[in-house]
Amino acid sequence: MNWLFRYANPHEFMRLSGAILPFMVIATALAFAVGLYLGFSVPPDYQQGTTVTLMFIHVPADVVAEMAYGVMAVCSLFSLVWRHPLSDTAARAAAPLGAIFTALGIVTGALWGKPMWGTYWAWDPRLTSFLLLLFLYFGYMALWNAIEDETRAARAAAILALVGVVNIPIIKFSVDWWNTLHQGESIVSGKIAPVYLAPLLIMMLAYVLLFFTLWMVRIRTAILERRATALMQRGAP
Amino acid sequence: MSPFATLLLRDVKLAARSGGSAALALSFFALVATLMPLGIGADLRLLARVAAGVLWVGAVLAALLSLDRLFQGDYEDGSLDLIALAPLPLELTALAKIAAHWFSTGLPLTLLSPLLALMFNLPPTPTLVLFFSLLIGTPAVSAIGAIGASLTLSLKRGGLILPLLILPLLAPAVIFGAGAVSATMDGLGGQGALELLAAFSAAAVLLSPFAAAASVRLNLGG
Amino acid sequence: MISSLTAENLACVRGDKRLFESLSFRVRAGQALAVEGANGAGKTSLLRLLAGFLSPVAGRVLVKTASRESDDAEERGRLVGWLGHLDGLKPQLTVLEQLSFFARLYGRHADPAALETVGLGRQADLPCRYLSAGQRRRLALARLLTSQRPLWLLDEPFAALDAAGQRLVAQLMLRHCGEGGIIIAATHDPLGLGNESLKL
To answer: Which domains are delineated in chain A?
Structure first.
């Protein structure tokens, strides 16, 4: 665990992240290039036609949307239990990213579902769960903004994130149950054809890399902002 | 009298004496039940179908009304400091407050629900299921609400973000609670849903005090 | 019950401000410590730290009782009789109801004699909303007495009291120390108990 705490020092973090950031950006761009190329050159699905390409945008967004919350929860745990100094900043930085990916997942899911359902919103259980997840993100960000004292806000938000992460499986289960009760429709059924698998996995990798790249940038920005504020407080020119 | 019972009784007494948060919640509940048909129309068959959902959401929102004061009152006048120093563990303090909130809000709402169900033309058996679903589910509302209340207790306008924080977390209660009634009306039997609801409520009541106590400690240390 | 309380190298931070550091002192049974300082110097923060609400950035507080020695904040809190800035009184409850509530919460019996001691004997059934500032303070004192806690942490105990009230406070404090209790009080006025004072 000690190596983690070494990079808790903002200076160390800036140094390390500064070094790997260029590689992250290149890797992300490459992954997107390959993934999008493969995704668009894939044969149309016999059922869904060309809208199947939306799957390559939608599914990875969903994956990252949930992963981001997990990242937030882990940072929150580090913040509360081990008082790891950077983890508050890291958790807060992850939230808007998670919200954006969640919103992206919802919108692309609606676009994807329209040809099948005839409407943009048919209360598909997955999309409904993600809508609730979006609200959880909003609540988390709202709590951070509402509490003046930064330290207190950080810890309150950490508690909320952990409460949320425990509830998310329960919420998903209940929405699935609700769906079976009212016999609604579902987007993705069954297996994915092997020819779609490669582009999908590469796009997922691309999205994950994008998240971590943006996350790193946001943490760096937050650290720099804090330094700038400290300098201004001391009256530096 | 045990410290736990002392705190519970005091909170219930305070709720009763301060113009009754019960009266406010009941009025709100009844108003929602009155406004909805004004918006939907007086189609009795349609109203019977939507009754469970409307009344469940109405009850949850009504219970929310008094939640932001759950800890805030004691925090603002210094009582919370004294309560925190008492021999009673803070988790039990939270549990006592959750129980008091349920007695003064959730329980009255549950008792009013059959009357409102009547206005929605809900048949007797589903009404009974609705009653039990609210009886079992409203403790979860108080419990999870307490987490939101403790997180926002230092905020002047904490009441504004409290619903945002806890309504998503209460989705399972609404789903299972209203779902039990729907299942009954469809002839499927509401027992499965009620069992799921009971499990959810039990977990909420058992675990929320820990999160609420952590939040209270956080705020007292400010 | 407490033989001594020792603060070792306490440091406290509030927001971005360093309130105090390397603060050390010891108070023994029967002693009183006055904490003096300007507003915002950290008197209340120190008291809250001693009560266990705040965690120090550095240092610790050791409490020695007959059976053990501990620096645990929560344990320490169980020994504290707290008199803060705020009264902790509900307007809708009567004086006696208020006292009974706290007495039972602290595992004690509500003793109407405590009300007599502080001069509120005839106001037992009066709702707290009708009490004057001085009477509210007296009720807080009655509550303090009823809690029977050895470590008294008092934040401006003489505030809002007239001369008679202040004499009462001094009298109660003297009695508490006489019985072996410890008092740490934030105050502008000297305690007149002949003990130490701490400047923040």
So the answer is: 19-233 (1.20.120)
